[in-house]
Amino acid sequence: MEEKLNDLRKIIINKVNEVNNLNDLNNLKVEYLSKKSEIGILSNSLKEMSIEDKKVYGKLINDFKNEITNLIDNKKVELEEIELNKKLENEKIDINLPATKIPIGSPNILECIVEEVESIFMSMGYDVVDGPEVEEDKYNFELLNIPKGHPARDAQDTFYIEDENILLRSQTSPVQARTMLAKKGTEPIRMICPGKTYRRDDDDATHSHQFMQIEGLLVDKDVSLSDLKGTFDVLAKKLFGKDIQTRFRPSYYQFTEPSVEMDISCFNCHGKGCNICKNSGWITVSGAGMVHPNVLKNCSYNPEEWTGFAFGFGAERLAMLKYGINDIRVFYNTDLREVKNFDREVVEND
Hints:
three-stranded antiparallel sheet; 19% strand; alpha+beta
């Protein structure tokens, strides 16, 4: 058997040396190391030998198999290195060529303006609170002093999902009601609640059935309209420039009393009159007012002890004014040419 293994060794070594690709080497491995190969047949013949012969010839066969396996493995490493060098030679990269330009997206313009407003209010100690977009009628209307059948509902005609009790919220004010109820009329509140709202409106350059609102609420002891005015002053100057002036005009909202429209002086003409401010010198930005006593009472707060103010901004309107956008539909498409100009924060120097 030893002579037979020596002859077989010479044959295998010659064949391995002649192999020049991995596929042929693998075929060679199957030919000589599989169970049906000559080496496999020799291994099977051991069971017919005596115990003494098995010890002698078993070791010879195992040593031979290990030798051939190592020989083939070394040849495999050699062939793989040759193939790698060929690939490196044929697939050279010219590092002098310019890199491929990959377009990078930008944050949505609404996301930018919401984050900026959040940052301003958080610097004044406000919390940012979120709430459900699918709401109950009592949170969206009834607790806010807008009972069923009230004319004020017409201006907020929304999408009802189940009967007249489940709807897509027409404002983010329900988050304020939920927050007041959670506090059980015992703690002051300072919060804003940005989010999507829905109303049955025609989609055009200035209207959308879906839009973003940023509403705020402050409830505490001895709160007055002057506190609201000071808060609005800070926001207006941070968003539109330190030279901006603000004013209040009387208005009406069912959930505030008294109610006001909040205006800023025109940042384009500085009060002289232009097409942006419709030659008035002022631009209406938001509605606001002192929280109606009925709303405080409905939400567990005693109006004899607590007062507060509430306000609401349309995020799209703020962004349109700040960035000079004249079509609300820009916010809801994915054209990078339109959003790439708004991917940086403008810092106002004090």
